[in-house]
C-alpha cells in the first residue's frame, strides 16, 4: 500500500481511533483519519470546574474535531472491525491504514517515537 506524497517524502496513512489530541499532532506528519463516535473532543477533566464556575466555561470544554483537525479527515462513527489494512465503522465506511493508533489521555504523543 502506498502512502500520500508530500513534497519529496511519502506520508503514512494513519487511523487514530478516539484520540483527538493524537490526531491533531500527527496531522502534520501523516495522512490522518480520526475515527470517533462523537463529532467533538471533550475536555472531561474541566467539566467539574464548569459546574462551580460560570456556565460559559463549559462551552470551552467541548471542541469540534473539524475546528482543529485541518489536515485530516474525521469519521463520526464507532469502529466495529479492525484488520491489518482497514478499519470498518458502524456507518459502513472503510478506511485504509498503514498505522493504527488508539490513544488515551496522558499517553506519549511524540510523533518521532510513533514512526520509528
From TrEMBL:
GO cellular component, one term: cytoplasm
Database matches in SUPFAM superfamilies: NAD(P)-binding Rossmann-fold domains
GO terms assigned for molecular function: electron-transferring-flavoprotein dehydrogenase activity; flavin adenine dinucleotide binding
InterPro entries on file: FAD/NAD-bd_sf (IPR036188), NAD(P)-bd_dom_sf (IPR036291)
Stated name of the protein: Uncharacterized protein
Native species: Arabidopsis arenosa
Amino acid at each position: 500500500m502506498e502512502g500520500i506524497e508530500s513534497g519529496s517524502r511519502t506520508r503514512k496513512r494513519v487511523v487514530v481511533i478516539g484520540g483527538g489530541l493524537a490526531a491533531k499532532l500527527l496531522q502534520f506528519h501523516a495522512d490522518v483519519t480520526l475515527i470517533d463516535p462523537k463529532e467533538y473532543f471533550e475536555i472531561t477533566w474541566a467539566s467539574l470546574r464548569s459546574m462551580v464556575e460560570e456556565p460559559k466555561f463549559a462551552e470551552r470544554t467541548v471542541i469540534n474535531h473539524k475546528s482543529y483537525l485541518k489536515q485530516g479527515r474525521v469519521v463520526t462513527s464507532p469502529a466495529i472491525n479492525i484488520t491489518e489494512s482497514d478499519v470498518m465503522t458502524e456507518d459502513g465506511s472503510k478506511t485504509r491504514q498503514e498505522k493504527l493508533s488508539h490513544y488515551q489521555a496522558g499517553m506519549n504523543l511524540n510523533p518521532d517515537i510513533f514512526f520509528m
